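hey so u asked for the seq, here:
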Amino acid sequence: MKKHLFPLFLLFIGINASAQQDFFALVGKDSPNIIFNDFRAVDANKGTSGETIFTDTSSAKVFSQTRNGAVTEDKNTYNNAQAVNMATLAYDASNNNLVYMPMFSSNIYVLNAKSREITLIENNVARVTACDINSHFTRMATGYDGSIYAINNVGTQFIKISKSGNQYSVTDLGIITDDSANGKSSFTIMETGFGGDMIADAEGNFYVFSASGNVFKVLTKELKARFVGKIAGIPDNYSVNGSAVNSKGNVVIASAKGGSLYEVDLNTLQAKQLPGEQNLHIYDLASKYFANDKAISANAFANIDLYPTRVNEKLINITINDKSVKGAVKLNVFDLSGKNVFVQSLSVKDGFLRQQVDLGNLVSGAYLVNISDESGKVLLNKKIVVTE
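ran it, structure tokens below
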């Protein structure tokens, strides 16, 4: 993307086009068993498939991080990049990577969506046993800090996959237990808490959508899973196996048993069926969006706001729709030490402004964005995180 301010109609076109390539699905075959078929882009608004990224028959170019070289894997084992039993997927938008794990293996794979090259991360942190369903990782998402997070079926392992330079590392963050108020809606038993998928929010927490349709908020600091409620508006026999946030800030869910995709309002947990393909067998979904963040949307914005707050292209969008705001406003960006590292004036016409701003050479890190009017009155303070 070129670093300049776009005309408004070009900006909208760009948003709509990119939205079709920032939502991905792990798709299986039409079978009662879990059998991997492909990773593909999905249009989360239309509920239709897009480009196929990698399939069970693709030529796999696998580079082992531990052995520092190319490897040839045995496709008849559980430990390979095209294993039949896979149910985890996350999208690392900063590097255009799809990150996933076979269910019966501790191996982690990083697939570049453009080059189709795969990095194998062998690790001894994820304790996975093929015959122990409790140990299988079935929930994965990119966190707001850019790292990848995954949770096994009973919450006894909550792992973080981080990248520094060209090397990945895996950390065990601990055991997630039930909040005391959960009662019979337990995060750790098969009937109410197993399987499904998870999404991240902009505060560093996660929401797990279990296969049964229950939703739990995982509080990362406390390592507690708090029961939020049960999804309404989906068929009784609908197994929730994939979940990801769309560009409107809602959650899209999908089922490994086939059927339609549904859009879920995270505040009400009310689901509505999406149009499009009706029989996709989806084991997991992934996107670049976060719950409770300001989504990139051409139609919805607050009176004064900016988005996204996790910035990976050094571009933010400023929106003002307030008749009381007149003339010029000033945008200031401060680092965490309080140093002013960026200043730009913006012109508001008739109380309206929608403009994309290039933040220039800001290094990765957290910043505070301040917008003030001509009198110096602060209109908005908002934290952003810049990533590369």
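The first helix runs from residue 8 to 19. Confidence is low (pLDDT under 50) at residues 1-20, 295-302.
lmk if thats what u needed
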